[in-house]
Amino acid sequence: MLNSFLNTLVGVYYDSGIASFFVGEGWKNLVMIAVACGLFYLAIKKGFEPLLLLPIAFGMLLANLPGAGLYHPEIWDTANAQYWIKDAAGFHILAGNVLQHGGLLDILYLGVKLGIYPPLIFLGIGAMTDFGPLIARPSSFLMGAAAQLGIFAAFFGALALGMTGPEAGSIGIIGGADGPTAIFVTSKLAPHLLGPIAVAAYSYMALVPLIQPPIMRALTTKKERLIRMNVPRTVSKTEKIMFPIIITIVVALILPDAAPLVGMLMFGNLLKESGKTDRIAKAAQNELMNIVTIFLGTTVGATTNGASFLNFDTLKIVAMGLVAFCIGTAGGVLLGKLMCFLSGGKINPLIGSAGVSAVPMAARVSQKVGQEEDPGNFLLMHAMGPNVSGVIGSAVAAGVLIKILTPLV
Amino acid sequence: MIENMSDIQLGIIVTICGLVIVFAILAILVAVIGASGAINTGVANSNNKKEKPAVENKQAPAPKIVKPAVSDGIDDETVAVITAAVYSMYAGTGVTPRVSFIKSADKKRPAWASAGIAQNIKAF
Lengths: 409, 124
What we know:
By secondary structure, chain A is an all-alpha fold. Helices cover 70% and strands 2% of the residues of chain A. By secondary structure, chain B is mainly alpha-helical.
Protein backbone atom coordinates (compact mmCIF):
# COMPACT_ATOMS: atom_id res chain seq x y z
CA MET A 1 0.00 0.00 0.00
CA LEU A 2 2.83 2.36 0.85
CA ASN A 3 4.47 1.57 -2.47
CA SER A 4 1.25 2.39 -4.33
CA PHE A 5 1.02 5.69 -2.47
CA LEU A 6 4.61 6.60 -3.28
CA ASN A 7 4.24 5.51 -6.89
CA THR A 8 1.15 7.67 -7.21
CA LEU A 9 3.00 10.69 -5.82
CA VAL A 10 5.95 10.09 -8.12
CA GLY A 11 3.59 9.75 -11.05
CA VAL A 12 1.92 13.04 -10.19
CA TYR A 13 5.35 14.68 -9.99
CA TYR A 14 6.52 13.35 -13.37
CA ASP A 15 3.26 14.47 -14.99
CA SER A 16 3.54 17.94 -13.52
CA GLY A 17 4.93 20.98 -15.23
CA ILE A 18 7.72 21.26 -12.68
CA ALA A 19 9.30 17.97 -13.82
CA SER A 20 9.05 19.11 -17.43
CA PHE A 21 11.51 21.93 -16.71
CA PHE A 22 14.25 19.33 -16.19
CA VAL A 23 13.52 17.25 -19.29
CA GLY A 24 15.19 18.07 -22.61
CA GLU A 25 14.87 21.77 -23.42
CA GLY A 26 12.32 22.35 -20.67
CA TRP A 27 14.70 24.80 -18.97
CA LYS A 28 13.94 27.26 -21.79
CA ASN A 29 10.33 27.44 -20.56
CA LEU A 30 11.65 28.45 -17.14
CA VAL A 31 13.74 31.20 -18.72
CA MET A 32 10.72 32.42 -20.70
CA ILE A 33 8.64 32.58 -17.53
CA ALA A 34 11.35 34.79 -16.05
CA VAL A 35 11.29 36.95 -19.21
CA ALA A 36 7.51 37.23 -18.88
CA CYS A 37 7.94 38.43 -15.29
CA GLY A 38 10.46 41.00 -16.53
CA LEU A 39 7.93 42.25 -19.07
CA PHE A 40 5.31 42.47 -16.29
CA TYR A 41 7.70 44.76 -14.44
CA LEU A 42 8.24 46.94 -17.51
CA ALA A 43 4.53 47.14 -18.29
CA ILE A 44 3.20 47.71 -14.77
CA LYS A 45 5.97 49.48 -12.89
CA LYS A 46 7.60 51.38 -15.76
CA GLY A 47 4.46 51.88 -17.87
CA PHE A 48 5.98 50.57 -21.14
CA GLU A 49 2.96 50.35 -23.48
CA PRO A 50 1.05 48.39 -20.84
CA LEU A 51 -2.09 47.90 -22.95
CA LEU A 52 -0.20 45.57 -25.26
CA LEU A 53 2.86 44.54 -23.30
CA LEU A 54 0.85 43.15 -20.37
CA PRO A 55 -1.27 40.81 -22.53
CA ILE A 56 1.85 39.81 -24.49
CA ALA A 57 3.68 39.01 -21.26
CA PHE A 58 0.76 37.00 -19.91
CA GLY A 59 0.41 35.10 -23.17
CA MET A 60 4.12 34.33 -22.92
CA LEU A 61 3.60 33.07 -19.37
CA LEU A 62 0.61 30.87 -20.29
CA ALA A 63 2.36 29.34 -23.31
CA ASN A 64 5.48 28.44 -21.32
CA LEU A 65 3.69 26.63 -18.50
CA PRO A 66 4.38 22.98 -19.45
CA GLY A 67 1.32 20.78 -19.86
CA ALA A 68 -1.16 23.68 -19.71
CA GLY A 69 -2.25 22.88 -23.25
CA LEU A 70 -3.29 26.43 -24.12
CA TYR A 71 -0.92 26.79 -27.06
CA HIS A 72 0.65 24.14 -29.30
CA PRO A 73 3.57 25.38 -31.43
CA GLU A 74 3.44 22.22 -33.53
CA ILE A 75 0.04 23.28 -34.93
CA TRP A 76 1.59 26.40 -36.49
CA ASP A 77 4.47 24.57 -38.18
CA THR A 78 3.65 24.68 -41.91
CA ALA A 79 5.26 21.23 -42.29
CA ASN A 80 2.43 19.73 -40.22
CA ALA A 81 0.09 18.27 -42.83
CA GLN A 82 -2.71 17.79 -40.29
CA TYR A 83 -3.15 21.57 -40.08
CA TRP A 84 -1.66 22.97 -43.30
CA ILE A 85 -2.15 22.49 -47.01
CA LYS A 86 -0.08 24.00 -49.75
CA ASP A 87 -1.16 25.10 -53.19
CA ALA A 88 0.11 27.50 -55.84
CA ALA A 89 -0.87 30.47 -53.68
CA GLY A 90 1.14 29.21 -50.69
CA PHE A 91 0.31 27.61 -47.31
CA HIS A 92 -3.25 27.65 -45.93
CA ILE A 93 -4.32 26.76 -42.42
CA LEU A 94 -7.00 24.09 -41.91
CA ALA A 95 -8.93 26.15 -39.38
CA GLY A 96 -11.47 23.41 -38.68
CA ASN A 97 -8.74 21.09 -37.38
CA VAL A 98 -7.38 23.87 -35.20
CA LEU A 99 -10.84 24.42 -33.73
CA GLN A 100 -11.15 20.70 -32.98
CA HIS A 101 -7.71 19.98 -31.56
CA GLY A 102 -6.26 23.30 -30.50
CA GLY A 103 -6.13 24.93 -27.09
CA LEU A 104 -7.76 28.24 -26.15
CA LEU A 105 -4.85 30.36 -27.39
CA ASP A 106 -4.53 28.29 -30.60
CA ILE A 107 -8.14 29.11 -31.45
CA LEU A 108 -7.74 32.79 -30.61
CA TYR A 109 -4.48 32.87 -32.59
CA LEU A 110 -6.46 32.17 -35.75
CA GLY A 111 -7.41 35.85 -35.66
CA VAL A 112 -3.73 36.72 -36.10
CA LYS A 113 -2.99 34.06 -38.72
CA LEU A 114 -6.02 35.01 -40.80
CA GLY A 115 -5.08 38.71 -40.61
CA ILE A 116 -8.21 39.75 -38.70
CA TYR A 117 -7.00 41.39 -35.49
CA PRO A 118 -4.58 44.05 -36.86
CA PRO A 119 -7.14 45.54 -39.27
CA LEU A 120 -9.70 45.64 -36.45
CA ILE A 121 -7.19 47.46 -34.26
CA PHE A 122 -6.71 49.92 -37.12
CA LEU A 123 -10.49 50.38 -37.22
CA GLY A 124 -10.34 51.52 -33.61
CA ILE A 125 -7.29 53.70 -34.24
CA GLY A 126 -9.04 55.40 -37.15
CA ALA A 127 -12.05 56.10 -34.94
CA MET A 128 -9.76 57.80 -32.42
CA THR A 129 -7.62 59.81 -34.85
CA ASP A 130 -8.12 63.39 -35.97
CA PHE A 131 -6.58 63.85 -39.42
CA GLY A 132 -7.30 67.60 -39.37
CA PRO A 133 -3.64 68.71 -39.02
CA LEU A 134 -2.71 66.47 -41.95
CA ILE A 135 -5.54 67.75 -44.13
CA ALA A 136 -4.58 71.35 -43.31
CA ARG A 137 -0.98 70.76 -44.36
CA PRO A 138 -0.87 67.86 -46.90
CA SER A 139 2.91 68.23 -47.31
CA SER A 140 3.15 66.41 -43.96
CA PHE A 141 2.50 63.24 -45.94
CA LEU A 142 6.06 63.47 -47.26
CA MET A 143 7.53 63.51 -43.76
CA GLY A 144 5.50 60.39 -43.02
CA ALA A 145 7.02 58.82 -46.15
CA ALA A 146 10.59 59.82 -45.24
CA ALA A 147 10.28 58.27 -41.80
CA GLN A 148 9.66 54.88 -43.44
CA LEU A 149 13.31 54.96 -44.57
CA GLY A 150 14.10 53.09 -41.37
CA ILE A 151 12.03 50.13 -42.50
CA PHE A 152 14.08 49.58 -45.63
CA ALA A 153 17.42 50.33 -43.97
CA ALA A 154 16.66 47.67 -41.35
CA PHE A 155 15.56 45.32 -44.12
CA PHE A 156 18.96 45.70 -45.74
CA GLY A 157 20.71 45.25 -42.41
CA ALA A 158 18.75 42.11 -41.58
CA LEU A 159 19.64 40.60 -44.95
CA ALA A 160 23.30 41.38 -44.24
CA LEU A 161 22.98 39.53 -40.92
CA GLY A 162 21.88 36.37 -42.72
CA MET A 163 18.09 36.56 -42.39
CA THR A 164 15.93 35.48 -45.32
CA GLY A 165 13.99 38.04 -47.37
CA PRO A 166 10.63 37.51 -45.62
CA GLU A 167 12.33 37.50 -42.19
CA ALA A 168 14.18 40.72 -43.06
CA GLY A 169 10.91 42.34 -44.17
CA SER A 170 9.27 41.41 -40.88
CA ILE A 171 12.21 42.85 -38.94
CA GLY A 172 12.31 45.99 -41.05
CA ILE A 173 8.65 46.81 -40.42
CA ILE A 174 9.54 47.39 -36.76
CA GLY A 175 10.86 50.72 -38.04
CA GLY A 176 7.30 51.72 -38.90
CA ALA A 177 6.75 52.05 -35.12
CA ASP A 178 3.31 50.53 -35.55
CA GLY A 179 2.50 47.41 -33.56
CA PRO A 180 -0.53 46.14 -35.50
CA THR A 181 1.28 46.69 -38.81
CA ALA A 182 4.34 44.80 -37.56
CA ILE A 183 2.14 41.92 -36.42
CA PHE A 184 0.17 41.92 -39.69
CA VAL A 185 3.31 41.76 -41.85
CA THR A 186 5.12 39.24 -39.65
CA SER A 187 2.12 36.90 -39.47
CA LYS A 188 2.21 36.73 -43.27
CA LEU A 189 5.95 36.74 -43.97
CA ALA A 190 7.70 35.18 -40.96
CA PRO A 191 5.19 33.93 -38.37
CA HIS A 192 7.92 32.05 -36.47
CA LEU A 193 9.40 35.45 -35.52
CA LEU A 194 6.08 36.96 -34.39
CA GLY A 195 6.79 36.82 -30.68
CA PRO A 196 10.21 38.52 -30.59
CA ILE A 197 9.20 41.07 -33.25
CA ALA A 198 6.05 42.05 -31.35
CA VAL A 199 7.96 42.39 -28.07
CA ALA A 200 10.70 44.42 -29.81
CA ALA A 201 8.19 46.65 -31.65
CA TYR A 202 6.18 47.57 -28.56
CA SER A 203 9.26 47.99 -26.39
CA TYR A 204 10.85 50.39 -28.86
CA MET A 205 7.58 52.31 -29.23
CA ALA A 206 7.71 52.92 -25.50
CA LEU A 207 11.35 54.04 -25.81
CA VAL A 208 10.62 56.70 -28.49
CA PRO A 209 11.08 59.55 -25.95
CA LEU A 210 14.57 58.21 -25.21
CA ILE A 211 15.68 57.24 -28.73
CA GLN A 212 14.52 60.25 -30.75
CA PRO A 213 15.70 63.43 -28.95
CA PRO A 214 19.48 62.90 -29.36
CA ILE A 215 19.02 62.23 -33.08
CA MET A 216 16.76 65.28 -33.47
CA ARG A 217 19.25 67.56 -31.70
CA ALA A 218 22.20 66.17 -33.69
CA LEU A 219 20.55 66.76 -37.07
CA THR A 220 19.10 70.24 -36.46
CA THR A 221 20.58 73.61 -35.64
CA LYS A 222 19.40 75.77 -32.75
CA LYS A 223 18.01 78.28 -35.23
CA GLU A 224 15.93 75.57 -36.88
CA ARG A 225 14.63 74.28 -33.56
CA LEU A 226 13.47 77.80 -32.69
CA ILE A 227 11.24 78.15 -35.76
CA ARG A 228 7.64 78.93 -34.85
CA MET A 229 5.17 77.71 -37.43
CA ASN A 230 2.06 79.50 -38.63
CA VAL A 231 -1.30 78.32 -37.37
CA PRO A 232 -2.69 75.84 -39.92
CA ARG A 233 -5.93 76.68 -41.71
CA THR A 234 -9.28 75.53 -40.40
CA VAL A 235 -10.42 72.24 -41.93
CA SER A 236 -14.10 71.91 -42.79
CA LYS A 237 -16.35 69.01 -41.87
CA THR A 238 -16.74 68.17 -45.56
CA GLU A 239 -13.00 67.77 -45.96
CA LYS A 240 -12.80 65.53 -42.92
CA ILE A 241 -15.53 63.33 -44.37
CA MET A 242 -14.02 63.23 -47.88
CA PHE A 243 -10.51 62.46 -46.59
CA PRO A 244 -11.00 58.80 -45.55
CA ILE A 245 -12.96 58.03 -48.70
CA ILE A 246 -10.30 59.54 -50.96
CA ILE A 247 -7.41 57.86 -49.14
CA THR A 248 -9.08 54.44 -49.27
CA ILE A 249 -9.81 54.67 -52.99
CA VAL A 250 -6.38 55.99 -53.99
CA VAL A 251 -4.28 53.64 -51.84
CA ALA A 252 -6.34 50.50 -52.42
CA LEU A 253 -6.37 51.00 -56.19
CA ILE A 254 -2.60 51.52 -56.39
CA LEU A 255 -1.55 48.97 -53.77
CA PRO A 256 -4.28 46.42 -52.97
CA ASP A 257 -2.11 44.65 -50.36
CA ALA A 258 -2.33 47.76 -48.18
CA ALA A 259 -6.14 47.81 -48.39
CA PRO A 260 -6.88 45.77 -45.22
CA LEU A 261 -4.94 48.13 -42.97
CA VAL A 262 -5.53 51.47 -44.72
CA GLY A 263 -9.15 50.62 -45.52
CA MET A 264 -10.05 49.76 -41.93
CA LEU A 265 -8.14 52.79 -40.63
CA MET A 266 -10.15 55.05 -42.90
CA PHE A 267 -13.41 53.22 -42.18
CA GLY A 268 -12.96 53.90 -38.47
CA ASN A 269 -12.17 57.53 -39.21
CA LEU A 270 -15.25 57.92 -41.38
CA LEU A 271 -17.43 56.45 -38.63
CA LYS A 272 -16.09 59.17 -36.34
CA GLU A 273 -16.18 62.09 -38.76
CA SER A 274 -19.58 61.41 -40.33
CA GLY A 275 -21.30 62.38 -37.09
CA LYS A 276 -24.15 59.97 -37.89
CA THR A 277 -22.65 56.78 -36.47
CA ASP A 278 -21.67 57.94 -33.03
CA ARG A 279 -22.61 54.69 -31.28
CA ILE A 280 -20.56 52.41 -33.50
CA ALA A 281 -17.66 54.89 -33.62
CA LYS A 282 -17.58 54.75 -29.82
CA ALA A 283 -17.82 50.95 -29.89
CA ALA A 284 -14.91 50.80 -32.37
CA GLN A 285 -12.64 52.96 -30.25
CA ASN A 286 -13.64 51.40 -26.93
CA GLU A 287 -15.20 47.95 -26.69
CA LEU A 288 -13.94 46.51 -29.99
CA MET A 289 -10.46 47.95 -29.59
CA ASN A 290 -10.14 46.65 -26.05
CA ILE A 291 -11.38 43.14 -26.88
CA VAL A 292 -9.14 42.76 -29.92
CA THR A 293 -6.17 44.17 -27.99
CA ILE A 294 -6.61 41.47 -25.35
CA PHE A 295 -6.86 38.67 -27.94
CA LEU A 296 -4.02 40.00 -30.09
CA GLY A 297 -1.59 40.64 -27.25
CA THR A 298 -2.22 37.35 -25.47
CA THR A 299 -1.95 35.19 -28.58
CA VAL A 300 1.14 36.99 -29.88
CA GLY A 301 2.77 36.50 -26.50
CA ALA A 302 1.84 32.83 -26.61
CA THR A 303 4.00 32.33 -29.71
CA THR A 304 7.12 33.20 -27.69
CA ASN A 305 8.21 29.77 -26.59
CA GLY A 306 11.80 29.11 -25.60
CA ALA A 307 12.85 27.70 -28.97
CA SER A 308 11.61 30.73 -30.93
CA PHE A 309 12.71 33.43 -28.47
CA LEU A 310 15.95 32.27 -26.84
CA ASN A 311 18.24 32.31 -29.86
CA PHE A 312 20.60 34.61 -31.71
CA ASP A 313 17.85 35.74 -34.08
CA THR A 314 16.17 37.59 -31.20
CA LEU A 315 19.34 39.63 -30.66
CA LYS A 316 19.43 40.45 -34.38
CA ILE A 317 15.78 41.57 -34.18
CA VAL A 318 16.49 43.80 -31.18
CA ALA A 319 19.54 45.34 -32.88
CA MET A 320 17.84 45.90 -36.23
CA GLY A 321 14.74 47.27 -34.54
CA LEU A 322 16.86 49.98 -32.93
CA VAL A 323 18.55 50.71 -36.27
CA ALA A 324 15.14 51.01 -37.93
CA PHE A 325 13.87 53.48 -35.34
CA CYS A 326 17.00 55.63 -35.48
CA ILE A 327 17.16 55.79 -39.27
CA GLY A 328 13.41 56.43 -39.51
CA THR A 329 13.74 59.38 -37.13
CA ALA A 330 16.73 60.69 -39.06
CA GLY A 331 14.89 60.32 -42.37
CA GLY A 332 11.91 62.32 -41.14
CA VAL A 333 14.09 65.08 -39.66
CA LEU A 334 16.23 65.35 -42.80
CA LEU A 335 13.17 65.75 -44.99
CA GLY A 336 11.90 68.29 -42.49
CA LYS A 337 15.13 70.24 -43.01
CA LEU A 338 14.67 70.09 -46.76
CA MET A 339 11.10 71.34 -46.43
CA CYS A 340 12.33 74.07 -44.07
CA PHE A 341 14.80 75.20 -46.72
CA LEU A 342 12.29 75.04 -49.58
CA SER A 343 9.64 76.90 -47.59
CA GLY A 344 12.01 79.69 -46.61
CA GLY A 345 12.21 78.71 -42.96
CA LYS A 346 8.50 78.29 -42.29
CA ILE A 347 8.62 74.62 -41.29
CA ASN A 348 10.35 73.45 -38.11
CA PRO A 349 12.35 70.29 -38.99
CA LEU A 350 11.64 68.80 -35.56
CA ILE A 351 8.14 67.81 -36.69
CA GLY A 352 9.70 65.47 -39.26
CA SER A 353 10.68 63.03 -36.51
CA ALA A 354 6.99 62.56 -35.75
CA GLY A 355 6.67 60.71 -39.06
CA VAL A 356 7.41 57.50 -37.21
CA SER A 357 3.88 56.44 -36.49
CA ALA A 358 4.01 56.13 -32.70
CA VAL A 359 0.86 58.25 -32.22
CA PRO A 360 0.86 60.55 -30.26
CA MET A 361 4.14 59.84 -28.50
CA ALA A 362 6.37 60.98 -31.38
CA ALA A 363 4.43 64.25 -31.77
CA ARG A 364 4.85 64.90 -28.03
CA VAL A 365 8.60 64.34 -28.39
CA SER A 366 8.72 67.01 -31.15
CA GLN A 367 6.83 69.36 -28.85
CA LYS A 368 9.16 68.64 -25.93
CA VAL A 369 12.42 69.09 -27.88
CA GLY A 370 11.09 72.30 -29.42
CA GLN A 371 10.10 73.64 -26.01
CA GLU A 372 13.58 72.96 -24.63
CA GLU A 373 14.78 75.81 -26.86
CA ASP A 374 11.66 78.00 -26.71
CA PRO A 375 9.03 77.29 -24.03
CA GLY A 376 6.50 79.29 -26.00
CA ASN A 377 6.84 77.18 -29.14
CA PHE A 378 3.89 74.78 -29.46
CA LEU A 379 4.69 72.23 -32.13
CA LEU A 380 2.29 69.49 -31.00
CA MET A 381 -0.54 70.09 -33.46
CA HIS A 382 1.92 70.76 -36.30
CA ALA A 383 3.67 67.46 -35.49
CA MET A 384 0.37 65.54 -35.47
CA GLY A 385 0.22 65.91 -39.26
CA PRO A 386 3.40 63.89 -39.94
CA ASN A 387 2.55 61.61 -37.02
CA VAL A 388 -0.77 60.41 -38.45
CA SER A 389 0.62 60.38 -41.97
CA GLY A 390 3.23 57.95 -40.64
CA VAL A 391 0.42 55.52 -39.81
CA ILE A 392 -0.69 55.63 -43.43
CA GLY A 393 2.93 55.51 -44.64
CA SER A 394 3.78 52.45 -42.56
CA ALA A 395 0.65 50.68 -43.79
CA VAL A 396 1.66 51.44 -47.40
CA ALA A 397 5.21 50.20 -46.70
CA ALA A 398 3.69 47.05 -45.20
CA GLY A 399 1.70 46.50 -48.38
CA VAL A 400 4.85 46.91 -50.46
CA LEU A 401 6.79 44.38 -48.37
CA ILE A 402 3.94 41.85 -48.47
CA LYS A 403 3.55 42.29 -52.22
CA ILE A 404 7.23 41.86 -53.04
CA LEU A 405 8.28 39.25 -50.45
CA THR A 406 5.30 36.85 -50.32
CA PRO A 407 6.62 34.78 -53.27
CA LEU A 408 9.71 34.01 -51.13
CA VAL A 409 7.69 32.59 -48.18
CA MET B 1 12.58 36.18 -60.85
CA ILE B 2 12.87 37.52 -57.31
CA GLU B 3 13.48 33.98 -56.04
CA ASN B 4 16.80 33.79 -57.94
CA MET B 5 18.27 37.06 -56.68
CA SER B 6 21.19 37.29 -54.31
CA ASP B 7 20.70 39.01 -50.96
CA ILE B 8 22.33 42.24 -52.15
CA GLN B 9 20.19 42.36 -55.29
CA LEU B 10 17.07 41.63 -53.25
CA GLY B 11 17.97 44.33 -50.73
CA ILE B 12 18.56 46.93 -53.42
CA ILE B 13 15.40 46.09 -55.37
CA VAL B 14 13.14 46.02 -52.32
CA THR B 15 14.63 49.23 -50.87
CA ILE B 16 14.41 51.21 -54.09
CA CYS B 17 10.98 49.89 -55.08
CA GLY B 18 9.67 50.30 -51.56
CA LEU B 19 10.82 53.89 -51.13
CA VAL B 20 9.70 54.89 -54.63
CA ILE B 21 6.25 53.36 -54.17
CA VAL B 22 5.75 54.82 -50.67
CA PHE B 23 6.83 58.30 -51.77
CA ALA B 24 4.83 58.09 -54.99
CA ILE B 25 1.60 57.07 -53.25
CA LEU B 26 1.98 59.70 -50.55
CA ALA B 27 2.90 62.36 -53.13
CA ILE B 28 -0.28 61.49 -55.02
CA LEU B 29 -2.19 61.86 -51.76
CA VAL B 30 -0.56 65.28 -51.19
CA ALA B 31 -1.80 66.39 -54.61
CA VAL B 32 -5.30 64.90 -54.22
CA ILE B 33 -5.89 66.16 -50.67
CA GLY B 34 -4.39 69.54 -51.52
CA ALA B 35 -6.68 69.86 -54.56
CA SER B 36 -9.71 68.75 -52.56
CA GLY B 37 -8.86 71.32 -49.89
CA ALA B 38 -8.48 74.08 -52.48
CA ILE B 39 -11.82 73.16 -54.12
CA ASN B 40 -13.56 73.02 -50.75
CA THR B 41 -12.11 76.37 -49.69
CA GLY B 42 -13.15 77.93 -53.00
CA VAL B 43 -16.69 76.59 -52.69
CA ALA B 44 -16.93 77.77 -49.07
CA ASN B 45 -15.74 81.27 -50.04
CA SER B 46 -18.26 81.57 -52.88
CA ASN B 47 -21.07 80.36 -50.59
CA ASN B 48 -20.10 82.97 -48.01
CA LYS B 49 -20.31 85.70 -50.64
CA LYS B 50 -23.77 84.51 -51.76
CA GLU B 51 -25.10 84.17 -48.23
CA LYS B 52 -24.13 87.64 -47.02
CA PRO B 53 -27.05 89.53 -48.64
CA ALA B 54 -29.50 86.79 -47.57
CA VAL B 55 -28.27 87.02 -43.98
CA GLU B 56 -28.78 90.78 -44.02
CA ASN B 57 -32.37 90.26 -45.21
CA LYS B 58 -33.08 87.67 -42.52
CA GLN B 59 -31.82 89.92 -39.83
CA ALA B 60 -34.34 92.69 -40.72
CA PRO B 61 -37.38 91.46 -38.71
CA ALA B 62 -36.50 91.02 -35.03
CA PRO B 63 -38.16 87.96 -33.45
CA LYS B 64 -40.94 88.66 -30.96
CA ILE B 65 -39.70 87.54 -27.55
CA VAL B 66 -42.35 85.77 -25.47
CA LYS B 67 -41.47 85.13 -21.87
CA PRO B 68 -41.93 81.37 -21.13
CA ALA B 69 -44.27 80.14 -18.42
CA VAL B 70 -42.10 79.11 -15.48
CA SER B 71 -43.10 76.78 -12.64
CA ASP B 72 -42.51 77.85 -9.05
CA GLY B 73 -39.01 77.63 -7.61
CA ILE B 74 -37.06 78.40 -10.82
CA ASP B 75 -35.16 81.68 -10.73
CA ASP B 76 -34.61 84.06 -13.65
CA GLU B 77 -30.96 83.10 -14.03
CA THR B 78 -31.87 79.43 -14.53
CA VAL B 79 -34.51 80.41 -17.10
CA ALA B 80 -31.91 82.49 -18.95
CA VAL B 81 -29.39 79.63 -18.99
CA ILE B 82 -31.93 77.08 -20.21
CA THR B 83 -33.21 79.44 -22.90
CA ALA B 84 -29.66 80.22 -24.07
CA ALA B 85 -28.87 76.48 -24.26
CA VAL B 86 -31.96 75.80 -26.38
CA TYR B 87 -31.14 78.68 -28.75
CA SER B 88 -27.50 77.53 -29.12
CA MET B 89 -28.70 74.02 -30.07
CA TYR B 90 -30.60 75.46 -33.02
CA ALA B 91 -27.91 77.96 -34.04
CA GLY B 92 -27.01 77.68 -37.70
CA THR B 93 -29.99 75.44 -38.57
CA GLY B 94 -32.22 78.30 -39.73
CA VAL B 95 -34.84 77.41 -37.13
CA THR B 96 -35.72 79.93 -34.42
CA PRO B 97 -36.95 78.04 -31.38
CA ARG B 98 -39.42 79.41 -28.86
CA VAL B 99 -39.28 78.28 -25.26
CA SER B 100 -42.92 78.05 -24.15
CA PHE B 101 -42.59 76.77 -20.62
CA ILE B 102 -39.99 75.54 -18.16
CA LYS B 103 -40.92 73.22 -15.32
CA SER B 104 -38.91 71.17 -12.84
CA ALA B 105 -38.12 67.58 -13.80
CA ASP B 106 -39.39 64.61 -11.83
CA LYS B 107 -37.09 64.52 -8.81
CA LYS B 108 -37.72 60.83 -8.07
CA ARG B 109 -34.99 59.74 -10.53
CA PRO B 110 -31.47 61.29 -10.41
CA ALA B 111 -30.49 63.36 -13.43
CA TRP B 112 -27.59 61.09 -14.36
CA ALA B 113 -29.85 58.03 -14.32
CA SER B 114 -32.34 59.81 -16.58
CA ALA B 115 -29.53 60.75 -18.98
CA GLY B 116 -28.31 57.15 -19.09
CA ILE B 117 -31.81 55.82 -19.79
CA ALA B 118 -32.36 58.41 -22.51
CA GLN B 119 -29.09 57.43 -24.21
CA ASN B 120 -29.82 53.72 -24.11
CA ILE B 121 -33.33 54.00 -25.57
CA LYS B 122 -32.26 56.51 -28.23
CA ALA B 123 -33.09 55.24 -31.72
CA PHE B 124 -30.31 54.21 -34.17
